[in-house]
Amino acid sequence: MTMDNRVFLAGCGEYTEEQVFPAVHRVLEGFGGAEAFGVAGKKVLIKANLLSAHKPEEAVTTHPLVIEALCREFIAAGADVTIADSPGGPFNETLLRRCYRTTGMEEAARKSGAKLNFDTSHRKVECGGEYCRSFELLDAVLDADLVVSAAKLKTHGLAYYTGAVKNLYGCIPGLDKAAMHAAYSDKRVFNRVLVDLCELVKPGFSLVDGVIGMEGPGPSGGTPKFAGVIGGAVNPYALDLAMCGVAMLPASLVPVLGEAAARGLAPADERELEYIGEAPDAYRTEFKPATGSHRSRGSMGFFASFVLPRGLREAIRDRRSPYPVIRQNCVGCGRCAEICPRGAIAVTDGRAKVRYDECIRCYCCHEMCPARAIELKRGRPHD
Protein backbone atom coordinates (compact mmCIF):
# COMPACT_ATOMS: atom_id res chain seq x y z
CA MET A 1 0.00 0.00 0.00
CA THR A 2 1.34 3.44 -0.94
CA MET A 3 2.00 5.59 2.10
CA ASP A 4 0.13 8.89 2.35
CA ASN A 5 2.77 11.64 2.51
CA ARG A 6 0.36 14.58 2.33
CA VAL A 7 0.64 17.25 5.01
CA PHE A 8 -1.44 20.39 5.34
CA LEU A 9 0.03 23.38 7.18
CA ALA A 10 -2.18 26.35 8.04
CA GLY A 11 -0.89 29.59 9.53
CA CYS A 12 -2.45 30.70 12.82
CA GLY A 13 -1.03 33.75 14.54
CA GLU A 14 -2.83 33.58 17.88
CA TYR A 15 -5.28 31.63 19.96
CA THR A 16 -8.52 33.34 19.03
CA GLU A 17 -11.67 31.87 17.53
CA GLU A 18 -11.19 34.16 14.54
CA GLN A 19 -7.86 32.53 13.72
CA VAL A 20 -8.01 29.00 15.16
CA PHE A 21 -11.39 27.93 13.79
CA PRO A 22 -10.62 28.85 10.14
CA ALA A 23 -7.14 27.31 10.38
CA VAL A 24 -8.47 23.96 11.63
CA HIS A 25 -11.20 24.08 8.98
CA ARG A 26 -8.61 24.64 6.23
CA VAL A 27 -6.53 21.73 7.47
CA LEU A 28 -9.48 19.34 7.39
CA GLU A 29 -10.74 20.70 4.05
CA GLY A 30 -7.38 19.79 2.59
CA PHE A 31 -8.41 16.15 3.08
CA GLY A 32 -12.02 16.57 1.97
CA GLY A 33 -13.42 17.91 5.24
CA ALA A 34 -14.55 16.04 8.35
CA GLU A 35 -17.38 14.44 6.40
CA ALA A 36 -14.84 12.71 4.14
CA PHE A 37 -13.98 10.41 7.05
CA GLY A 38 -17.48 8.89 7.00
CA VAL A 39 -18.24 9.86 10.59
CA ALA A 40 -22.00 10.52 10.34
CA GLY A 41 -23.63 8.59 13.17
CA LYS A 42 -20.21 7.30 14.32
CA LYS A 43 -18.16 7.75 17.51
CA VAL A 44 -15.16 10.07 17.12
CA LEU A 45 -12.59 10.33 19.90
CA ILE A 46 -10.44 13.46 20.00
CA LYS A 47 -7.29 12.32 21.79
CA ALA A 48 -5.86 15.56 23.19
CA ASN A 49 -2.45 15.91 24.84
CA LEU A 50 -3.40 16.44 28.48
CA LEU A 51 -0.17 15.46 30.18
CA SER A 52 -1.29 16.99 33.47
CA ALA A 53 -3.40 19.81 34.86
CA HIS A 54 -1.65 22.80 33.25
CA LYS A 55 -3.25 26.04 32.13
CA PRO A 56 -3.38 26.58 28.33
CA GLU A 57 -0.88 29.45 28.43
CA GLU A 58 1.81 27.12 29.81
CA ALA A 59 1.94 25.37 26.39
CA VAL A 60 2.07 21.90 27.95
CA THR A 61 -1.29 20.70 26.60
CA THR A 62 -3.21 21.01 23.35
CA HIS A 63 -4.91 24.40 23.36
CA PRO A 64 -8.66 24.18 24.11
CA LEU A 65 -9.59 26.35 21.11
CA VAL A 66 -7.88 23.85 18.81
CA ILE A 67 -9.81 21.00 20.43
CA GLU A 68 -13.05 22.98 20.29
CA ALA A 69 -12.52 23.67 16.60
CA LEU A 70 -11.92 19.97 15.86
CA CYS A 71 -15.00 18.98 17.83
CA ARG A 72 -17.16 21.49 15.96
CA GLU A 73 -15.96 20.19 12.59
CA PHE A 74 -16.72 16.54 13.36
CA ILE A 75 -20.02 17.30 15.11
CA ALA A 76 -21.11 19.30 12.04
CA ALA A 77 -20.32 16.17 10.00
CA GLY A 78 -22.76 14.18 12.15
CA ALA A 79 -20.36 12.51 14.58
CA ASP A 80 -20.79 11.75 18.27
CA VAL A 81 -17.60 13.38 19.61
CA THR A 82 -15.75 12.70 22.87
CA ILE A 83 -12.59 14.40 24.20
CA ALA A 84 -10.30 12.03 26.09
CA ASP A 85 -6.85 11.39 27.48
CA SER A 86 -5.20 9.57 30.35
CA PRO A 87 -2.96 12.12 32.08
CA GLY A 88 0.13 11.06 33.98
CA GLY A 89 -0.39 9.52 37.41
CA PRO A 90 -3.48 7.78 38.81
CA PHE A 91 -6.45 7.53 36.45
CA ASN A 92 -9.70 8.39 38.20
CA GLU A 93 -12.67 10.67 37.72
CA THR A 94 -11.62 13.20 40.37
CA LEU A 95 -8.25 13.85 38.75
CA LEU A 96 -9.77 13.82 35.27
CA ARG A 97 -12.23 16.54 36.25
CA ARG A 98 -9.42 18.68 37.60
CA CYS A 99 -7.36 18.16 34.46
CA TYR A 100 -10.26 18.92 32.10
CA ARG A 101 -11.13 22.06 34.04
CA THR A 102 -7.57 23.41 34.30
CA THR A 103 -6.60 22.69 30.68
CA GLY A 104 -9.77 24.30 29.31
CA MET A 105 -11.25 21.07 27.97
CA GLU A 106 -14.35 21.47 30.11
CA GLU A 107 -15.11 24.76 28.35
CA ALA A 108 -14.17 23.36 24.93
CA ALA A 109 -16.64 20.52 25.37
CA ARG A 110 -19.42 22.80 26.62
CA LYS A 111 -19.06 25.28 23.77
CA SER A 112 -18.71 22.69 21.00
CA GLY A 113 -21.27 20.17 22.18
CA ALA A 114 -18.72 17.39 22.64
CA LYS A 115 -18.53 15.02 25.60
CA LEU A 116 -15.72 14.55 28.08
CA ASN A 117 -14.61 11.01 28.80
CA PHE A 118 -14.88 9.92 32.44
CA ASP A 119 -14.87 6.20 31.71
CA THR A 120 -11.69 4.87 33.32
CA SER A 121 -12.23 1.27 32.23
CA HIS A 122 -9.66 -0.39 30.03
CA ARG A 123 -8.80 -3.77 28.59
CA LYS A 124 -5.87 -5.73 27.25
CA VAL A 125 -5.57 -5.98 23.48
CA GLU A 126 -3.34 -8.48 21.73
CA CYS A 127 -1.56 -7.18 18.64
CA GLY A 128 1.09 -8.14 16.14
CA GLY A 129 3.56 -5.50 17.24
CA GLU A 130 7.20 -6.03 16.41
CA TYR A 131 8.32 -5.19 19.97
CA CYS A 132 5.15 -5.29 22.07
CA ARG A 133 2.56 -8.05 21.67
CA SER A 134 -0.20 -6.49 23.78
CA PHE A 135 -1.32 -3.15 25.19
CA GLU A 136 -3.70 -2.11 27.94
CA LEU A 137 -5.90 0.54 26.28
CA LEU A 138 -8.77 2.76 27.36
CA ASP A 139 -12.20 1.42 26.46
CA ALA A 140 -13.04 4.88 25.11
CA VAL A 141 -10.27 4.49 22.54
CA LEU A 142 -11.14 0.93 21.60
CA ASP A 143 -14.85 1.71 21.26
CA ALA A 144 -14.34 4.72 18.96
CA ASP A 145 -14.97 4.43 15.23
CA LEU A 146 -12.36 7.10 14.52
CA VAL A 147 -9.49 8.34 16.70
CA VAL A 148 -8.07 11.80 16.03
CA SER A 149 -4.66 12.47 17.58
CA ALA A 150 -4.66 16.16 18.54
CA ALA A 151 -1.14 16.79 19.80
CA LYS A 152 1.07 19.68 20.90
CA LEU A 153 4.37 20.58 19.24
CA LYS A 154 6.99 20.03 21.96
CA THR A 155 10.51 18.87 22.61
CA HIS A 156 10.89 15.77 24.79
CA GLY A 157 13.62 14.39 27.02
CA LEU A 158 13.12 10.75 26.06
CA ALA A 159 11.65 10.92 22.55
CA TYR A 160 13.48 14.14 21.52
CA TYR A 161 10.24 15.38 19.90
CA THR A 162 6.63 14.67 20.84
CA GLY A 163 3.74 15.07 18.45
CA ALA A 164 1.03 12.98 16.81
CA VAL A 165 2.59 9.56 17.47
CA LYS A 166 3.86 10.07 21.03
CA ASN A 167 0.51 11.63 21.92
CA LEU A 168 -1.07 8.18 21.61
CA TYR A 169 0.81 7.01 24.70
CA GLY A 170 -2.07 8.59 26.62
CA CYS A 171 -4.32 5.84 25.26
CA ILE A 172 -2.72 3.66 27.95
CA PRO A 173 -4.40 4.15 31.35
CA GLY A 174 -2.82 5.95 34.30
CA LEU A 175 0.06 4.22 35.99
CA ASP A 176 0.12 1.49 33.33
CA LYS A 177 2.20 3.99 31.36
CA ALA A 178 4.86 3.90 34.08
CA ALA A 179 4.74 0.11 34.01
CA MET A 180 5.41 0.23 30.26
CA HIS A 181 8.47 2.37 30.90
CA ALA A 182 9.70 -0.22 33.38
CA ALA A 183 9.03 -3.10 30.99
CA TYR A 184 10.83 -1.34 28.12
CA SER A 185 13.57 0.47 30.00
CA ASP A 186 15.85 0.56 26.95
CA LYS A 187 14.77 3.84 25.42
CA ARG A 188 15.52 2.63 21.89
CA VAL A 189 13.07 -0.23 22.33
CA PHE A 190 10.57 2.01 24.11
CA ASN A 191 10.43 4.39 21.15
CA ARG A 192 9.92 1.46 18.81
CA VAL A 193 7.06 0.29 21.03
CA LEU A 194 5.46 3.69 20.41
CA VAL A 195 5.29 2.76 16.73
CA ASP A 196 3.66 -0.57 17.64
CA LEU A 197 1.10 1.39 19.68
CA CYS A 198 0.41 3.80 16.84
CA GLU A 199 -0.11 0.90 14.45
CA LEU A 200 -2.60 -0.63 16.87
CA VAL A 201 -4.61 2.55 17.55
CA LYS A 202 -4.36 3.66 13.91
CA PRO A 203 -5.57 7.26 14.24
CA GLY A 204 -7.73 8.18 11.25
CA PHE A 205 -6.48 11.73 11.33
CA SER A 206 -3.79 13.63 13.22
CA LEU A 207 -3.32 17.29 14.02
CA VAL A 208 -0.49 19.11 15.79
CA ASP A 209 -1.03 22.42 17.57
CA GLY A 210 2.08 24.42 16.74
CA VAL A 211 0.69 27.92 17.27
CA ILE A 212 2.66 28.08 20.50
CA GLY A 213 4.69 24.96 21.22
CA MET A 214 7.33 24.19 23.82
CA GLU A 215 11.10 24.16 23.52
CA GLY A 216 13.85 23.23 25.96
CA PRO A 217 13.19 20.71 28.75
CA GLY A 218 9.83 19.49 27.48
CA PRO A 219 7.30 18.04 27.62
CA SER A 220 6.30 20.07 30.68
CA GLY A 221 9.30 21.98 32.01
CA GLY A 222 10.25 23.92 28.89
CA THR A 223 9.49 27.38 27.54
CA PRO A 224 6.56 28.37 25.29
CA LYS A 225 7.74 28.93 21.71
CA PHE A 226 5.76 30.59 18.92
CA ALA A 227 5.64 28.81 15.57
CA GLY A 228 2.29 30.11 14.33
CA VAL A 229 1.10 26.99 12.53
CA ILE A 230 -1.33 24.09 12.79
CA GLY A 231 -0.52 20.92 10.89
CA GLY A 232 -2.66 17.99 9.87
CA ALA A 233 -2.28 14.67 8.05
CA VAL A 234 -3.80 11.24 7.65
CA ASN A 235 -0.35 9.71 8.22
CA PRO A 236 0.80 10.64 11.77
CA TYR A 237 4.45 9.88 10.97
CA ALA A 238 4.41 12.20 7.96
CA LEU A 239 2.91 14.93 10.12
CA ASP A 240 5.57 14.50 12.81
CA LEU A 241 8.29 14.61 10.16
CA ALA A 242 6.84 17.87 8.85
CA MET A 243 6.51 19.42 12.31
CA CYS A 244 10.10 18.46 13.15
CA GLY A 245 11.00 20.43 10.04
CA VAL A 246 9.00 23.40 11.30
CA ALA A 247 10.77 23.23 14.67
CA MET A 248 14.14 22.61 12.96
CA LEU A 249 14.62 19.48 15.06
CA PRO A 250 16.68 16.92 13.10
CA ALA A 251 14.44 13.99 12.24
CA SER A 252 17.49 11.73 12.45
CA LEU A 253 17.44 12.27 16.23
CA VAL A 254 13.79 11.26 16.63
CA PRO A 255 13.76 7.49 17.25
CA VAL A 256 10.07 7.13 16.37
CA LEU A 257 10.64 8.61 12.92
CA GLY A 258 13.67 6.41 12.34
CA GLU A 259 11.63 3.33 13.21
CA ALA A 260 8.72 4.47 11.05
CA ALA A 261 11.03 4.95 8.09
CA ALA A 262 12.63 1.54 8.65
CA ARG A 263 9.18 -0.08 8.55
CA GLY A 264 8.15 1.78 5.41
CA LEU A 265 5.52 3.83 7.24
CA ALA A 266 6.99 7.23 6.41
CA PRO A 267 9.79 8.71 4.34
CA ALA A 268 13.14 9.31 5.97
CA ASP A 269 13.48 12.76 4.42
CA GLU A 270 11.12 15.70 4.79
CA ARG A 271 11.68 16.55 1.12
CA GLU A 272 9.61 13.49 0.21
CA LEU A 273 6.50 14.94 1.87
CA GLU A 274 3.71 16.45 -0.21
CA TYR A 275 2.69 19.80 1.22
CA ILE A 276 -0.87 20.40 0.07
CA GLY A 277 -1.37 23.50 2.22
CA GLU A 278 1.05 26.31 2.95
CA ALA A 279 4.80 25.97 2.47
CA PRO A 280 6.73 25.07 5.63
CA ASP A 281 9.54 27.60 5.14
CA ALA A 282 7.34 30.46 6.36
CA TYR A 283 7.04 28.80 9.77
CA ARG A 284 10.47 27.34 10.42
CA THR A 285 11.83 28.43 13.79
CA GLU A 286 14.54 26.67 15.75
CA PHE A 287 13.34 24.94 18.90
CA LYS A 288 15.92 24.20 21.58
CA PRO A 289 16.01 20.46 22.38
CA ALA A 290 15.21 19.14 25.83
CA THR A 291 18.88 18.75 26.69
CA GLY A 292 21.92 20.47 25.20
CA SER A 293 22.16 21.64 21.60
CA HIS A 294 21.38 19.90 18.31
CA ARG A 295 25.09 19.32 17.79
CA SER A 296 25.96 18.05 21.26
CA ARG A 297 22.90 15.83 21.28
CA GLY A 298 23.44 14.20 17.96
CA SER A 299 26.97 14.70 16.71
CA MET A 300 29.43 11.85 17.08
CA GLY A 301 31.63 12.86 14.20
CA PHE A 302 31.63 11.71 10.59
CA PHE A 303 32.79 8.19 11.33
CA ALA A 304 30.19 7.43 13.99
CA SER A 305 27.35 9.08 12.09
CA PHE A 306 27.87 7.37 8.77
CA VAL A 307 29.98 4.24 9.31
CA LEU A 308 28.96 2.72 12.65
CA PRO A 309 25.93 0.39 12.59
CA ARG A 310 22.64 1.90 13.68
CA GLY A 311 22.50 -0.14 16.91
CA LEU A 312 25.99 0.97 17.97
CA ARG A 313 25.21 4.61 17.17
CA GLU A 314 22.10 4.37 19.33
CA ALA A 315 24.05 2.72 22.15
CA ILE A 316 26.56 5.57 22.13
CA ARG A 317 23.78 8.14 22.26
CA ASP A 318 22.11 6.20 25.06
CA ARG A 319 25.27 6.30 27.18
CA ARG A 320 25.26 10.06 26.79
CA SER A 321 21.64 10.40 27.87
CA PRO A 322 21.19 12.74 30.83
CA TYR A 323 20.07 11.88 34.35
CA PRO A 324 17.32 13.58 36.35
CA VAL A 325 18.73 15.86 39.04
CA ILE A 326 16.61 17.24 41.90
CA ARG A 327 17.03 20.99 42.29
CA GLN A 328 16.79 23.11 45.42
CA ASN A 329 13.23 24.22 44.66
CA CYS A 330 11.88 20.69 45.27
CA VAL A 331 8.79 20.96 47.49
CA GLY A 332 8.71 17.29 48.49
CA CYS A 333 5.23 16.68 47.06
CA GLY A 334 6.09 13.08 46.14
CA ARG A 335 4.66 13.20 42.62
CA CYS A 336 7.96 11.98 41.16
CA ALA A 337 8.10 9.06 43.58
CA GLU A 338 4.52 8.15 42.72
CA ILE A 339 5.15 8.12 38.97
CA CYS A 340 8.61 6.50 38.90
CA PRO A 341 8.24 3.08 37.18
CA ARG A 342 11.18 1.57 39.06
CA GLY A 343 10.45 3.10 42.48
CA ALA A 344 13.86 4.76 42.29
CA ILE A 345 12.77 7.98 44.01
CA ALA A 346 11.91 8.56 47.65
CA VAL A 347 11.02 11.69 49.59
CA THR A 348 13.04 12.10 52.77
CA ASP A 349 13.19 15.19 54.97
CA GLY A 350 10.87 17.03 52.61
CA ARG A 351 12.99 16.51 49.51
CA ALA A 352 13.03 13.95 46.70
CA LYS A 353 16.12 11.81 46.21
CA VAL A 354 16.97 9.58 43.23
CA ARG A 355 18.70 6.19 43.57
CA TYR A 356 20.67 6.35 40.34
CA ASP A 357 21.62 2.68 40.31
CA GLU A 358 17.91 1.96 39.72
CA CYS A 359 17.11 4.94 37.44
CA ILE A 360 16.26 3.95 33.85
CA ARG A 361 16.24 7.56 32.62
CA CYS A 362 12.66 7.48 31.37
CA TYR A 363 12.16 11.07 32.61
CA CYS A 364 8.64 10.44 33.92
CA CYS A 365 9.65 12.36 37.05
CA HIS A 366 10.81 15.30 34.93
CA GLU A 367 7.56 15.29 32.95
CA MET A 368 5.27 15.27 35.96
CA CYS A 369 7.07 17.52 38.48
CA PRO A 370 4.64 20.38 39.26
CA ALA A 371 7.43 22.56 40.70
CA ARG A 372 9.75 22.09 37.69
CA ALA A 373 12.36 21.04 40.21
CA ILE A 374 13.95 18.27 38.13
CA GLU A 375 16.70 19.07 35.67
CA LEU A 376 18.21 16.75 33.08
CA LYS A 377 22.02 16.69 33.20
CA ARG A 378 24.63 14.56 31.49
CA GLY A 379 26.94 12.54 33.64
CA ARG A 380 25.71 10.35 36.47
CA PRO A 381 25.37 12.35 39.69
CA HIS A 382 26.39 10.99 43.09
CA ASP A 383 23.55 9.30 44.95
Task: Describe this entry's structure for a reader.
The chain is an alpha/beta fold and about 375 residues long. The chain has 2 domains: about 5-285, 3-Layer(aba) Sandwich (Rossmann fold); about 320-375, 2-Layer Sandwich (Alpha-Beta Plaits), CATH 3.30.70. Helices cover about 30% and strands about 20% of the residues. It has helices at about 15-30, 65-75, 95-105, 105-110, 140, 175-185, 185-200, 235-245, 255-260, 295-300, 300-305, 310-320, 335-340, 365-370, and strands at about 5-10, 45-50, 80-85, 115, 120-125, 135-140, 145-155, 160, 205-215, 225-235, 275, 325, 345-350, 350-355, 375. The strands form 4 sheets. Strands 1, 2, 3, 4, 7, 8, 9, 10 and 11 form a 9-stranded mixed β-sheet that branches. The chain has a two-stranded antiparallel sheet with strand order 5-6. Helix 1 packs across helix 2, helix 2 runs parallel beside helix 4 (about 105-110) and helix 7 crosses helix 9. The longest helix is centred in the middle third of the chain and has 15 residues, at about 185-200. The termini are far apart.
